[in-house]
Structure formats: structure tokens, C-alpha cells
Amino acid sequence: MDTMEKLDVEVSAPERMHLKPERVQQALKKLPSWRLSEDGLAIESERRFATNQRTSSFAGYACRLASKLGQPVKIDLADKTVLVTLTGHPMRGCTGGLTAPVFKLADLIGS
After folding, report:
1. What is the 3-state secondary structure (H, E, C) of 39-59?
2. Measured between alpha carbons, how far is residue 101 from residues 24, 65, 95, 97 in Å?
3. Residue 60 lies in a domain
4. Could you say which DSSP state residue 34 is in?
5. Fewest CB within 10 A of the end CB: N or C in the chain?
6. Phi then psi for 47, rounded to 5 degrees?
7. 28-76 residue pLDDT tens
8. Is residue 33 part of a domain?
């Protein structure tokens, strides 16, 4: 006897995996050289170095760490200044946003 059961599957919007604003503020307190971006979708840190060589070395270091952790990073270089911007990214059907891995990367890059 063949019986076919109907499965009801609810389709909903992707789950948000970002941290709540209170958690973001708590995490930023532990990372004094990092700040929330103006749009609130990223964290950023600006560093100034004595030489262009140190500037580019730091930028490369931040990129290698981000690559190892699979996290996006945006690097802006101007003279001897590096602006590092970290954001979350969409993953497994979830929307992007500031997540624990973003703050882990910020901690590894340093304060």
C-alpha cells in the first residue's frame, strides 16, 4: 500500500546572525582602537605608521588573517595610514552583519 504524506514546509526570510547592538557595544569596549562605522554595518580601525613599508606590511598582515578566517576585509591605504574595515557576510542563507567572527578577527588584528 503506497501512502504519500504531505510535508508542510514554511518558507521564511533568512535568519539574522548578527549581534544585537548591546553585544556590539560590549565587544567594542574590549577593542579600544576599533569603532563602529557611520552606517553601523561595520567596525573600523585607523592606524598610522612611521614608514610606508610598515604600513603595507600591516595591511598585508590584516589581509592574511582575514583570508585564514574566511572573513571579508576592506583596506584603505593613504600615505602612512591604514584604515581596516570589517563586516560580516552572507553565509548559509543568513543575512550579513556584525558577528562574533568579525570581532574575533578584530581582536587578532589588534588594538
Report:
1. CCCCEEEEEECCCHHHHHHHH
2. 12, 12, 14, 11
3. yes
4. -
5. N
6. -125, 140
7. 999 999 999 998 889 999 999 999 999 999 999 999 999 999 999 999 9
8. no
Total domains in the fold of the chain:
1
Torsion angle, alpha carbons of 27, 16, 87, 99, to 10: 30
pTM, two decimals, is 0.77
Q: Which helix (H) or strand (E) holds 26?
A: helix 21-29
Q: Which domain does 51 fall in, by range?
A: 38-109
Task: Give dist(CA 103, CA 86) in Å, integer.
Answer: 9
